[in-house]
Request: fold
Amino acid sequence: MLPAALLFRTSAIAFVVSALVGCTGVPQSATVAVAKPESIVLTQPYTWVDVSSAFGRKLTFEYTMAAGNYTGSREDAGGVFYEGAGNCLVKKVASTNIDGWIVGSTWTQRCGIYVPKTTGSAKVYYYNLGTTTHIPGQPEHLIAGKPSSYDNANTAALNTVATTPGLSPVQAGIGAGLGAAVGGALLEAREEAIRVNAQFLIYQPDQAELRKAFGIH
Reply:
C-alpha cells in the first residue's frame, strides 16, 4: 500500500491524467442548431453541493447556476441544449482537508442545461474554453487557450470516475497521477476536445430539484 503522503501530494498534479479515460464531451458536429429557439427561465440562482471523500480526505464543491434566460441553441436526437448568458456556472471549493486545494477558489464557466425531448434526465453542462479561475490572494486567470494541467486533471479525474463504478474523484486522482508519466501523448490528443466541447457534469444535482428550479415538467 502506498503511504498517505504519496497518495495525497500537495499539488494539483495528484489529480492529473484525466483525459486518458472517459469521454471528451459533446462536439458541436454531433448537434444541429435549433430552428426556432425558445427559452426557459431560472428565476433565482440555483446552488447545490458535491462531496467527495476517500482515505479520510474530503473535498466539497459548491456549484451555482446564475439566474436568467437559458435559450435553446443546439439539439440532438435526444434533447435540447439550453445555454445561459456568459459564464453562468460558478464552481467553488467550499471546504477541504486536502493540501493543494484552497478553500474559496472558484471557476466560472459557460454553462447550460440539456433537456430531454421525451424521457431521460435533464443535465447540467459546461465549457472549459473561456473559464475564469480565481484563487484567493491571486489575480483572476482567463483560460483563453489550452486548459492548464490543473483544469485538465480535474476534468479527467471526474471522467475516470464516470467509467469506474464506485470510484471517487479523489481515488481517480490518485490513479491518474500515477499514470501521468505514460499518458502524455493521449492527454495531448484529447486536450483540444476537452477544451471546446460541451461537457456534462459527472455528478449532477438532484434531478427533481434541478427540474423544479428550471420549471421543467
Summary: The longest strand covers residues 46-54.
